[in-house]
Amino acid sequence: MSIITHALIASGLLLAAGAAAQETPAPRELYRPPNAVTVLPAEKSEDLRFLDLDLMYVMALWQGDFDNREQLQFDSDVGKRDMASGAHLRVHSAVRKVDLPKFGKNVLYVEEYKNNDPTSIFRQRIYVLAADKEEKAIRVTMHFFKDRKKWLGAHVNPDVIKNLTPNDTTALAGCDVFLRRDLNAFQGGMKTKTCVFGEEGKKRYSDYQVRLETDKYWFRDRIMDFTTDQPLEQVADFGWHQLERARMFACMIDFPKVPGKPAMTTDKYIVMHDQGGTYFFDHPDGRKMVLTLRNNWSYGMFRETLVAVIQEGDERGPTLTYGWADPGSDWIGVNPSWMRVQCDLDSAKTRKEQQDLRSDS
Asked: CATH assignment of 247-356, given 1.10.1760, 2.60.320, 2.40.30, 1.10.287?
């Protein structure tokens, strides 16, 4: 069990296939877009009217940033420390609604990376969502980029993707995902043995499943042998990757103007997320450190805890100091005297307020 866990007790798959082929809503509160109460045309059938409402909810639930850092902590604590021993893959997902009328009205840009490395992209897609009356489900058509690098980063800068057309992507037949309501969640996946690829005699098919809740995005993914229906590639025995909604924080990192003296000066302004976001930096005394924000799953206090941790070296290094707050808190700080960290829920207003603060204080 990690030192962070002890402190808190006291206080796709398809990687191979994937490689080949604003502001974040607050947690525990269903995000609703402006004017979410929609009057639907009276001539629509009852089934389609309900599907239209479900479509609106799915679009809202899926937008945001998600990460499964806490799932990996629990994997490690029970001895699953790598994928060979059954651990899940560390995944960060960024999903944004984009204005691409040539694709449709309800369009999402999806960019996911693994192992806490934003340059290690394994899933990048355009998702086009529509209410499907025949299937009584929300149909998700996935478009694969022909030139992935050209369109990277659209979740940060939508202008990157404004000129994208269907000719720049490929939608594979039979690979649509169908989501259906499950109480206050939505769950579904590809139809069995329809997303097929490979040469005759070596045919395979994808089995990709998704579950969406208010603050959760889960997925599981595997590649199956078309003839034997046996798994060829999968992670954690096809267990769900359980990603939690992440909130973005704007942080200031201050160092003493004079070593050993209380006066501080702001050295860095950064933005990071609270589901295992990390920032590596050098302290003026020469030590390499990492700042981590986590909304930890609780072992014994029946609640999550927002924690800011500073460690020497990396996340495996000794903990130098930490602070904690309620998981819904919009700010957290740490001040061990030899440096100071202040993190506030990110917004244009927050960033301006931080920039307007005296750098010497």
From this structure: 2.60.320
Residue with the larger pLDDT of the pair 305 and 288: 288
Which residues does 257 contact at the CB level (< 8 Å), separation at least 6? Answer: 263, 264, 265, 360
What are the residues whose beta carbons fall under 8 Å from the beta carbon of 161, sequence distance 6 or more?
Answer: 98, 100, 109, 151, 154
pLDDT tens digits along 180-233: 999 999 999 999 999 999 988 899 999 999 999 999 999 999 999 999 999 999
- Which of the listed CATH numbers 3.40.30.10, 2.160.10.10, 2.40.128.590, 3.40.640.10 matches domain 3-245? 2.40.128.590
Considering only residues 260 and 121, tell me which one the structure prediction assigns the higher pLDDT. Answer: 121
Give me the amino acid identity at 221.
D
Domain regions of the chain by residue span: 3-245, 247-356
* Residue 158 · residue 184 · CB < 8 Å: no
Q: Which two tokens stand for residue 288?
A: 């390499």
Q: In which element (H, E) is residue 93 found?
A: strand 91-97
CA dist 9 and 296 (Å) reads: 11
What tokens does 68 get?
């499964």
> Residue 44's pLDDT is what?
55
- Radius of gyration of the chain from Cα atoms? 22
Report the predicted TM-score, pTM, of the whole model to 2 decimal places: 0.84
Q: Which of 110, 300, 338 is nearest to 210 (CA)?
A: 110
